[in-house]
Amino acid sequence: MNxxxxxxxxxxxxxxxxxxPTDEAGVADARRExxxxxxxxxxxxxxxxQGDNVVVENKxxxxxxxxxxxxxxLMVPQRVGG
Amino acid sequence: xxxxxxxxGGGATAPTSVTRAGLPRGYAWAxxxxxxxxTTNDCFWxxxxxxxxxxxxxxxxxxxxxxxxxxxxxxxxxxxxQYVALSRQRVxxxxxxxxxxxxxxxxxxxxxxxxxxxxxxxYAEAERVREAAKAKSRELLLSHLTKExxxxxxxxxxxxxxxxxxxxxxxxxxxxxxxxxxxxxGRPGKVTHRLCCHLRDVSVPLYGHILAQKVWxxxxxxxFLRTANRHAA
Lengths: 82, 233
Known about the structure:
The complex is a heterodimer. By secondary structure, chain A is α+β, with helices and mostly antiparallel strands. Chain A has one domain (4-68). Helices cover 20% and strands 41% of the residues of chain A. Chain A has one helix and eight strands. Chain A has one helix at 24-39; strands at residues 4-10, 13-19, 43-47, 49-50, 54-55, 61-63, 72-76, 79-81. Chain A has a five-stranded mixed sheet with strand order 2-1-7-3-6, covered by helices on one side. In chain A, strands 4-5 form a two-stranded antiparallel ribbon. In chain A, a hairpin with a 3-residue loop joins β4 (49-50) and β5. Chain B has a five-stranded antiparallel sheet with strand order 5-6-7-8-9. A two-stranded antiparallel sheet of chain B has the order 1-2. In chain B, α4 crosses α5. By secondary structure, chain B is an alpha+beta fold. Chain B has five helices and nine strands; from the N terminus they run ββαββααββββααβ. Chain B has two domains: 1-110, no CATH class; 147-232, no CATH class. At the A-B interface, β1, β3, β5 and β8 of A face α2, β8 and α4 of B.
């Protein structure tokens, strides 16, 4: 099973949503969660990960659509200047 | 504080402003039995015990027709045996009162102690949750750092990041959130100014802010620079 991961930053440190791209129900759940977070003002970043989900530095991009094939997504809440 | 007193009620009927039910805790009511055509005696005994009521009526009377107190303290009018009885009753009342006070204070101490323990337990639980969240966010941050970044972070509590668009070098310090991003000139460079930009949700643990800053600089530098406030070095 090839699990894909969405890390969501929150007050608990972070929560993780996982899905298997071949499992339609799992993909639908992840897509719903992604859409909800975007509505809440989160930014989504696609991270390039290798092996055991180790992020490859300086690769990846900001995305606005859910891609079930994305290896690892990082959901970042709204920012503010301080 | 008197251990007994007199109710000066109005009219010949039972007092309305002070009733048996309305007496404070530990106070008992005594009503005079002697009634004439002109006077009705009402009195109450403060802190009294029920056995004292009969004697009490002989010690304090109120003319509720005239609405005046006939007698208040007539210890000097008592005979020897009455005085001894009064003294005994006062001692008893005093002891009862002291016991009740001690009991009330003990109850209050127990309640305060319970509240303090509850408060400490809630604080400890909140602290445990905060620490767990911090550890979890640190773990996520570390999983996004390169080997070099992880080493400088572990050693110095900072790491450097290159801007995804400008290749500008930034140093993110993890000692706090406000103004924790140094803009560097040269490599390794001196600090030209500092930037302040963080998550709006301050309930996210520190390392969540640090990771967000890293990701913004690397993957969304232009928007990040528009949002960030500049501060002198």
